[in-house]
Every structure is written in structure tokens, then in C-alpha cells.
Design goal:
Layout lengths: L7 H8 L7 H10 L10 E2 L18 E2 L4 E3 L2 E5 L3 E6 L7 E12 L22 E6 L2 E6 L17 E3 L5 E3 L2 H9 L7 E6 L5 E6 L7 E13 L2 H13 L11 H16 L3 H41 L5 H11 L13 H7 L4 H22 L24 E4 L4 E4 L17 E4 L3 E4 L23
Antiparallel strand pairs: 1-13, 2-5, 3-4, 4-13, 5-12, 6-11, 6-13, 7-8, 7-12, 9-10, 14-17, 15-16
Helix pairs in contact: 1-2, 4-6, 5-6, 6-7, 6-9, 7-9
């Protein structure tokens, strides 16, 4: 075990002053000890973190996503992506740091299939990470899963739940607090680096699975020096975290580039080689995942438009152009600059921006087919932006209200915060007069249209 030799108290003893008296003097005195730090005797830099334990149940010093709540000395986020961080200044010693915290990530709900054996069934779903950013380098590692510290007896009198195998896990900030008091969920460590004196630390998850929960407390930071051995810790940790992305449906050139970057990282030896190779590998890892997501969006939109075309009464030449794109195999041409859908899927040569542009191109083909071929019974729901409220903050809609009642979006409230329901997306107005609308900007033929929606009104 490493000896936590140099501490805040050692720094204060050398200066003879309190941190509250002169923050900069303490920082300077602490930094003067940096030359003595090593992986065997790290320098405790936790004092640089403002409010590392969320004293007084507030998020003072922290920026980013607002918490679901800050309570029991913890910061928690429930059911949506987040990024929770603070910058520690621009005068830190360059080198390697160890960032620790008590934290967990729950994938979805504890009763979901992910936990049907009492343990997480898919480790790749652990997407909540502790991270450190500096000089364009973003080093991160996932925090512990909910089931990692499950106990056979509850560690808290209140707020626990049971997994399918009968073990107990925390299910709210109070129970998490008592689990951490017992030493559980403390083994979260990320080796990070400072290259330009600047460091931002944080806790984030850009992904979302219905019901997910992430919570953190007890931040700690240690400086390990700038030796080759310290940088080797980064390489060792990140080597263990290298992801096999070969199964992703994405550009072949991106796959090849990522494989080469992994090889370069594995062969890196000097500190600079390790950091440069990691930065390249991480950039390509993110690019590969983004490209795979774009291909998935492209495939899904193709299937939606093909079903709409087949289900609805659309006629004319524009419909024929759409059908060729959706069902035929053709190389690039004047009509289809990048080729048709089957050609694009077969060759996998489009980058992420090109794919997103191709989705717009495909949507425009459908819009033109509908505008030129609307018949009795044609479904044009797609022209309504965010018709199911699945996008946050009433994206695509305009609204106003005339008094102080509530107006909510299930996925991100415009004006009033957000309202969560277990299995539906919806909008809600309570105790206010309101106007809620959007203009369909497509060119529609004159005539009578049927508008269907689910709604209710309560008069009092």
C-alpha cells in the first residue's frame, strides 16, 4: 500500500499558517513539496479541491450539471447524462496524479435484466467515469458498479434494496453514505496527468439508460511525481481499459486506425510517448463509437422511412426516386451523390458528418415524395418536430404561460426544471394558462387534415 506521507497537515506545519488565512501561501508551500513526491510517497493535494465532501449538502466549488440532489454529503445524478467538475487552477506541478472518490454507477434500475444474477451482466455499460483534463488530454476510468459492493446484510437501516440474488445495495444518498462509512465503494481510482499546469477533475456520464443512477463523495487527489514509473501507472490502467471495438459497424478505415493506435500505445515507453499515444487512441476510440452511432441512426431512419413509404399512400415520380434510394444498390450519381442506402451500408466509407448529412438527404427525399405525392390517408406525422417529447426541453415547440403554474417536459423542463415518469414521455401543464404550438414548415397541399394526440384536461 502506498504511504500517504506528505499531507495537508505537513504543508500547514511548514508554513505555520492556516489555509483560510492565505490560500496562495499554502498552495505555494504545498507545491514546494512536489519535488519530494513519488509513487511510494505521494503528496496529498486534496486541499486543492473545493468542497470535496459536499459539506453542508451543497455543490459549492463545482460546476456542470445540476445534481438531482446534494444530500448526506453526496452528489447524485439520476436518470440523465451529466458532467460534474471543477478546475483546480493553472499553477499545478506537471506530472502524474491519482484521483480517488467514493462512487458508484447503477445501470438502469436494480431490478432490470442487467442485474438478474445479482451482478452486472455487461461491463461495457459502466459508463460513469472519474476524469482529469489537461492540455487536451482527457484521462478517465469507470467507477464501481452498484453490485460490486453488495452485502448479505444491509449496511444502512434505511434506503437499501435487494438484488435478485438477495444481496443488499444502497438505493438513495442516505444508504450510500452509510455504505461509504463502512469503506464500501471507495476503490475508484483514476491516474491522470498535468502537462501545462492546468487541471480539471470531474465525474461524468454522456450516456443514458432508463433509471440509471450515479453518486459520488469523498474526493481525494495525490501527486505521484513525474518519473517514468509514475507514467507507467497510467499506461497500466489504460491498457486494462482498452476496448475491443471490432464488432462495431463503422468505417473500416477508422477500425484500422484505432487498431494501429492501440498497438502504438502498447509499445509506448517514455512519458511523452505514453501521453501522445493515449491521446491518439482515445480520440480514435471516440470517433469510432460516434461513427458507429451515426451508422445506427442511418439504418434506423432508413427502416422508418421505408415503412412509412410502404404504409402510406404516396404517388408520383418523387416517390420512385425515394424507393430507388431505399431499396436499390447504386453507386454515386447525380441523383444520389454518395450512392443509395445499400451501397453506403455495403462499403462503409462515410465519416460521421457525412452520415448525418446523408440522413438529411434521405429525409429530404421523403419530404419531397410526400409533398409531391400526398394522397388520402398519407401519414405525415414525421413533419411534427419532437412529436413524442423524447427530445429535451420541448425541442421544436413554442410555448408561453400567463401565470406561475408548472409547465414540464419529461426529458428536460423548459422554464421549470423537468418531470420524470417511469415509462412515458410527455408534457404537462398544471395550474396555468398556456399556449403550446409549432409551425409545420413543409409545403402542404390545401385540404383537410386529421390531428390525433393523447391528452386530458382537468378543470379543477
Amino acid at each position: 500500500m502506498k504511504t500517504r506521507f506528505f499531507t495537508l497537515f505537513a504543508a500547514l506545519a511548514l508554513t505555520g499558517i492556516s489555509y483560510a488565512q492565505d490560500e496562495m501561501s499554502v498552495r505555494d508551500s504545498l507545491f514546494n513539496l512536489a519535488g519530494e513526491a513519488s509513487i511510494e510517497e505521494p503528496l496529498d493535494m486534496t486541499l486543492l479541491i473545493v468542497n470535496p465532501n459536499y459539506d453542508g449538502d451543497n455543490r459549492a466549488g463545482w460546476e456542470g450539471t445540476s445534481a438531482t440532489q446534494v444530500s448526506w454529503g453526496t452528489w447524485e445524478n439520476w436518470n440523465h447524462p451529466f458532467d460534474h467538475y471543477q478546475n483546480l487552477g493553472s499553477d499545478l506541478p506537471n506530472g502524474v496524479y491519482e484521483l480517488n472518490a467514493s462512487a458508484l454507477h447503477r445501470v438502469g434500475n436494480y431490478w432490470d435484466s442487467w442485474y438478474n444474477t445479482g451482478a452486472l451482466s455487461n461491463e461495457s455499460l459502466r459508463t460513469s467515469v472519474l476524469y482529469g483534463k489537461t492540455g487536451g488530454i482527457d484521462l478517465y476510468a469507470p467507477v464501481m458498479d452498484l453490485a460490486a459492493c453488495a452485502t448479505y446484510e444491509p449496511a444502512s437501516e434505511y434506503g437499501t434494496a435487494q438484488l435478485a440474488n438477495g444481496t443488499y445495495i444502497p438505493d438513495n444518498p442516505e444508504s450510500f453514505h452509510f455504505y461509504t462509512m463502512g469503506g464500501y465503494y471507495a476503490e475508484n481510482s483514476t491516474y491522470i496527468v498535468v502537462t501545462d499546469g492546468n487541471l480539471t477533475i470531474g465525474f461524468r456520464d454522456p450516456n443514458y439508460i432508463e433509471g440509471q443512477w450515479s453518486i459520488v463523495d469523498n474526493w481525494q487527489l495525490y501527486y505521484l511525481g513525474s518519473s517514468d514509473e509514475a507514467y507507467a501507472l497510467i499506461k497500466e490502467q489504460q491498457t486494462d481499459l482498452i476496448q475491443d471495438l471490432s464488432s462495431l459497424f463503422a468505417m473500416e478505415t477508422l477500425h484500422d486506425a484505432y487498431k494501429d493506435a492501440v498497438d502504438d500505445f502498447n509499445s509506448a515507453e517514455s512519458p511523452q510517448e505514453i501521453i501522445d499515444a493515449y491521446a491518439k487512441m482515445d480520440s480514435l476510440r471516440l470517433a469510432l463509437r460516434a461513427n458507429a452511432d451515426a451508422y445506427a441512426q442511418y439504418k434506423a431512419r432508413h427502416d422508418e422511412l421505408l415503412a412509412l413509404m410502404q404504409e402510406n399512400e404516396i404517388y408520383g415520380e418523387s416517390r420512385d426516386v425515394l424507393e430507388r434510394y431505399l431499396t436499390e444498390y447504386e453507386e454515386g450519381s447525380e441523383s444520389y451523390p454518395r450512392g443509395t442506402y445499400d451501397y453506403i451500408i455495403d462499403n462503409k466509407t462515410l465519416d460521421t458528418a457525412e452520415l448525418l448529412d446523408e440522413i438529411s438527404f434521405m429525409n429530404n427525399l421523403y419530404t419531397t415524395a410526400v409533398e409531391n405525392g400526398i394522397g388520402n390517408g398519407t401519414n405525415i406525422t414525421y413533419m411534427i418536430k419532437n412529436a413524442d417529447f423524447s427530445q429535451s426541453n420541448f425541442e421544436g415547440w413554442e410555448w408561453s404561460r400567463t401565470n406561475s403554474g408548472n409547465f414540464y417536459s419529461r426529458t428536460g423542463g423548459k422554464g421549470d426544471g423537468w418531470q420524470q415518469y417511469s415509462d412515458v414521455w410527455l408534457g404537462e401543464a398544471w395550474n396555468c394558462s398556456f399556449d403550446f404550438h409549432q409551425t409545420i414548415e413543409n409545403t402542404l397541399p390545401d385540404g383537410i387534415y386529421e390531428l390525433d394526440f393523447q391528452a386530458l384536461y382537468r378543470s379543477g
